[in-house]
Amino acid sequence: MSRMTSESENGIVSNNQIELPLGEEGNYCGSANGGVVLKKGPWTSAEDAILIEYVKKHGEGNWNAVQKHSGLFRCGKSCRLRWANHLRPNLKKGAFTQEEEQLIIELHAKMGNKWALMAAHLPGRTDNEIKNYWNTRIKRRQRAGLPLYPPEASLQALQESQRCLNIDRIEIRNKSQHDTLQSNSYGIPNVIFDNLTPNQSIIPYVPELPDITASSMLMKGLSSFQYGSIMSPIMHRQKRLREATTLLSSFGGGMKNEFHLFDQFQEVDIAAQSFGLPFPFDYDSTTKNPEFFGENQGSHTLANGNFSASKPTSEAVKLELPSLQYSESDLGGWGPSCSPSPLIESVDAFIQSPPTGTVESECPSPRNSGLLDALLHEAKTLSSAKNQLSDKSSNSSTVTPGDNADSPGLNISETEWEDYGHPFSPLGHTATSLFSECTPISANESSLDESPSCETFTGSKCKFGRSAECYVKSESVDQTWTADREKESSTWLDITSPDALLDSGWLEHDSAYGKDQVIVTDAVETLLCDDLSSESKQMAAGASVNHGWGHSSCSWNNMPAVYQMYELP
DNA sequence: AAGTAGCTCAACCGCAATCAA
DNA sequence: GTTGATTGCGGTTGAGCTACT
């Protein structure tokens, strides 16, 4: 509004603001003007007055009639927007309150970029306002390397998610009493994708999935880290510190740990870039596959890299991105020169701050929310639960809080991955890192301006594929990986191992389907299926993939190569 | 003090869903 | 069932402002 001060106050169209009718120039506000030139640009107070007067008389709606009846040279669309965002009564002006911010965070964690829905929960606020706020906040937080969601939200969501997952697990196990640990079925003939069906019945709000896929969220995170990797070096450290501090304070100090994390990420990111690390792949320099990397240049690294182990695909995967969108071109650094850290950062954010809130559902489904947070949160929950049930773990491939730690004795599955020539684990660094990075870091481990510890995350156990244990060695940064840290990180699931997945509950055998089949929990499904190109999705759909709330199944043999990462020779 | 980069926010744009004829 | 108009939504843009160098 204040920006309209320089404008004409008479509401009459000035020449430089007159736009051709839409029939001649796109379809915005296209039809209602009948050849009358319509004004664009900022509204004047006179125009506002006209519009207000009109709405008083005729009420809202029928916006195209505004121009006809009021003489306002604005299209209906513009009128509606102006009214909704600025003129209608009961609009709150000014900055968001802390309560509102909190609510937005919770709502976004739950809904994703459903600005209109979010606005419905914030009286007096408009979707545009919320969207702008969120995008601004997102950018700031991402640039500062902070998680999107505050940790307190994580705890709440953790508890709720745990409860929901317990319900889910019960139902799954009711379907199958198989001992999931017995089967070492790498040649998985079929994969059953198990959505978190139980949630459906208790979720009052089940929108059409916005298709905020795991990969899109990962992309979001990855691209978010582009801010870290690209912006950070540009941004002066002082500014970064200030921003981060500001954001920190906005969360009541609960972000210390995250803040701490971030500073590490920045540096590692830079360092990793300087090493041309092929993010998201961690790889052992002695076993890296140059051919593979070459093929994937310019392609969608996440999709190709993480999911196409042996058959790199050249297909670009166009992902639908959430609000904070970045085109593939934005991810230009995804090639061999990409840093491993973006994902890690995002993962950190996601894991530390899974979706929360009970705005519309007490048991938000990861798929429903469309947020990877939920997905990862599930994994985290599962993994934690499994770790507690250590006695259950009989298979050597099971990742338990100890065998994961740096020991040269890799678990079976890991070795087998290697033997079977999958240069990278199915989920690669992505997933593995997720679990190795979600351990909170105590704030006193390093100060903000200390040389950050690359190993704090890069050194966490990155087991996958041929490269077995691969550390991202960034020689330009300190490597102060601590034993404690490693122990912490090692408690997380080794997702690259099917056995581990099985053991963790990510994959479960299901005898109900007759064959050696594996239930892939929603989280895995999301990683496996949702991240693929639409073409792949269609193929998968042809293979009985049902991306609904119920079970879905993919016939293994019919799955595109990118799906067949568990297939063994 | 000047130049510049980054930020904010209002408005635009395109698409899809809905509605009515 | 089809078509065109209307409405709603989410992503994007760009002008003005602010902070920094």
Automatic annotation (TrEMBL):
SMART domains, alphabetized: SANT
UniProt GO molecular function = DNA binding
**Chief location category:** nucleus
The processes (GO biological process) annotated in the record are:
anatomical structure morphogenesis; pollen sperm cell differentiation; positive regulation of DNA-templated transcription; regulation of growth
- Residue stretches making up the Myb-like domain: 38-87, 88-138
One GO CC term of this entry? nucleus
Record keywords: DNA-binding included? Answer: yes
Q: Which Pfam families does this UniProt record tie to the protein?
A: Myb_DNA-binding
Segments carrying the region annotation (Disordered) are: 383-418
Q: Where is the composition biased (Polar residues)?
A: 383-401
InterPro entries from the UniProt entry:
Homeodomain-like_sf (IPR009057), Myb_dom (IPR017930), SANT/Myb (IPR001005)
What keywords are annotated for this sequence in UniProt? Activator, DNA-binding, Nucleus, Repeat, Transcription, Transcription regulation
Q: Where is the HTH myb-type domain?
A: 35-87, 88-142
Compartments (UniProt record): Nucleus
Write down what this protein is called: Transcription factor GAMYB-like isoform X1
Protein's organism: Populus euphratica
